Structure formats: structure tokens, C-alpha cells
């Protein structure tokens, strides 16, 4: 597993506003969207392209286009939905799959309630988006769904990660595939409820309300 921590003053500034408990839901959504755009730029650095002949107003030349099979973006519902638009804005030709997963707050196991992914992901670059990587259980389960369909190249785009969760993901992936985690920051630790500290609270609730 490779880890990329975005090192940029705009990322740090926006993240600090997100962390503030007094930031309202509309502002929170907008900032998540803005942060994803900045992270997506890093996360898509190795997206595969192929040459394409183009004619400029001046001459013929060779450019590039995103290669097929097209990349797949997979938000992990609910909170990951807040990051989808930012990803597809940057990569409009990407296709989109969905995973609905909720952490059981007692057992901390990830429970899957929706799985809508293409049958065959062989050769596809997959981008999982979810703002929080806490114990890592959710991300490991999501990576396993992608691997089970043949994907081997997975990039997870998260806002915050806990060191404990990153270790779990690294150990679970081993040499089974090529996994990169792109984050805005790695926080200190998990608390006794497995929330990220200092963190930003429950990302899903702050985006969409308490349900
Ligand atoms: O690393 P883990 O310990 O597995 O926790 C991280 C998961 O928890 C949050 O989702 P949650 O289960 O709260 O669902 P939600 O998006 O519907 O709020 C978050 O968005 C991740 O999916
Ligand atoms: O800190 C945390 C941990 C899990 N899920 C969240 O939304 N926040
Ligand atoms: Mg939640």
C-alpha cells in the first residue's frame, strides 16, 4: 500500500474549517467538494491514457485521452456520496459504481446494504471515495469487493485517516494488489468509540444529518 498525504496550505485551511464543530452542513458539503477536487488531482496522477490524433487550428498533433477500460469511481455511501461530484467533475468520462456500507457502532464491523458494481473489473483503475478511514474495516471490505471482481489497481481517496486504520489496510492488502491511499491528513489516533482524533466527528451526519 502506498500512502500520499496532500501537503498544501489550501487543503490544511479547508480541513481546519471542516473540523470546526460549528461549521454548518451547507458549508461542510461545499468544503468537502472543494477538498475532493484538490485530492483528486493527486489521486489521478497515474490514470492511464492513450495517444489520440488531434487537429489544432494550426496543425495536426498527438494528444492523449483517458484509456479504456474507463476508470471506475465508487463512493461508499453515505458519506462518500459527498465526494462523488468532485471526482466526476475532474474525470467526467469515469463510470460510477456504488457501495452502501455502514459501520456497526457496537461491533465496528462494516455491514454492506448496497453493492452495485460492474461484474468484471479486470484491468480497471478503481477510485474508492469515503471521507473517513478509521479502523479500516470499511475500506478493507470495499477493496475486497473490487478485488473479487478482478480489480488490482485501487486508489482510495479519503479526507482523514487514523494510523491504526492505515496499518490494518496495509496488512489486509499485502501483495494482493496495487493500493494507494490519498488523504488530506493522517490524524493522531482513534478514541474509545473508534472515532478519529482530532477528526471531524461523524462525516455522514455532518453532511446529511443524523438518521
Ligand atoms: O474505518 P471504519 O472504522 O470502518 O469507519 C469508517 C467508516 O465510517 C463512516 O461511515 P458510517 O459507517 O458512519 O456510515 P455513513 O457514511 O452512512 O455515516 C465513514 O464514512 C466510513 O465509511
Ligand atoms: O471519526 C469517525 C470515524 C468513523 N466514521 C466517521 O464518520 N468519523
Ligand atoms: Mg456515519
UniProtKB/TrEMBL annotation:
<feature type="binding site">
    <location>
        <position position="202"/>
    </location>
    <ligand>
        <name>5-phospho-alpha-D-ribose 1-diphosphate</name>
    </ligand>
</feature>
<feature type="binding site">
    <location>
        <position position="103"/>
    </location>
    <ligand>
        <name>5-phospho-alpha-D-ribose 1-diphosphate</name>
    </ligand>
</feature>
<keyword id="KW-0328">Glycosyltransferase</keyword>
<dbReference type="GO" id="GO:0006223">
    <property type="term" value="P:uracil salvage"/>
</dbReference>
<keyword id="KW-0808">Transferase</keyword>
<feature type="binding site">
    <location>
        <begin position="201"/>
        <end position="203"/>
    </location>
    <ligand>
        <name>uracil</name>
    </ligand>
</feature>
<feature type="domain" description="Phosphoribosyltransferase">
    <location>
        <begin position="5"/>
        <end position="209"/>
    </location>
</feature>
<dbReference type="InterPro" id="IPR029057">
    <property type="entry name" value="PRTase-like"/>
</dbReference>
<keyword id="KW-0021">Allosteric enzyme</keyword>
<dbReference type="InterPro" id="IPR034332">
    <property type="entry name" value="Upp_B"/>
</dbReference>
<dbReference type="GO" id="GO:0044206">
    <property type="term" value="P:UMP salvage"/>
</dbReference>
<keyword id="KW-0460">Magnesium</keyword>
<comment type="pathway">
    <text>Pyrimidine metabolism; UMP biosynthesis via salvage pathway; UMP from uracil: step 1/1.</text>
</comment>
<dbReference type="GO" id="GO:0005525">
    <property type="term" value="F:GTP binding"/>
</dbReference>
<feature type="binding site">
    <location>
        <position position="78"/>
    </location>
    <ligand>
        <name>5-phospho-alpha-D-ribose 1-diphosphate</name>
    </ligand>
</feature>
<protein>
    <recommendedName>
        <fullName>Uracil phosphoribosyltransferase</fullName>
        <ecNumber>2.4.2.9</ecNumber>
    </recommendedName>
</protein>
<dbReference type="GO" id="GO:0005737">
    <property type="term" value="C:cytoplasm"/>
</dbReference>
<comment type="function">
    <text>Catalyzes the conversion of uracil and 5-phospho-alpha-D-ribose 1-diphosphate (PRPP) to UMP and diphosphate.</text>
</comment>
<comment type="similarity">
    <text>Belongs to the UPRTase family.</text>
</comment>
<keyword id="KW-0342">GTP-binding</keyword>
<dbReference type="InterPro" id="IPR000836">
    <property type="entry name" value="PRTase_dom"/>
</dbReference>
<dbReference type="Pfam" id="PF14681">
    <property type="entry name" value="UPRTase"/>
</dbReference>
<dbReference type="InterPro" id="IPR050054">
    <property type="entry name" value="UPRTase/APRTase"/>
</dbReference>
<dbReference type="GO" id="GO:0004845">
    <property type="term" value="F:uracil phosphoribosyltransferase activity"/>
</dbReference>
<feature type="binding site">
    <location>
        <position position="196"/>
    </location>
    <ligand>
        <name>uracil</name>
    </ligand>
</feature>
<dbReference type="GO" id="GO:0000287">
    <property type="term" value="F:magnesium ion binding"/>
</dbReference>
<dbReference type="InterPro" id="IPR005765">
    <property type="entry name" value="UPRT"/>
</dbReference>
<keyword id="KW-0547">Nucleotide-binding</keyword>
<feature type="binding site">
    <location>
        <begin position="130"/>
        <end position="138"/>
    </location>
    <ligand>
        <name>5-phospho-alpha-D-ribose 1-diphosphate</name>
    </ligand>
</feature>
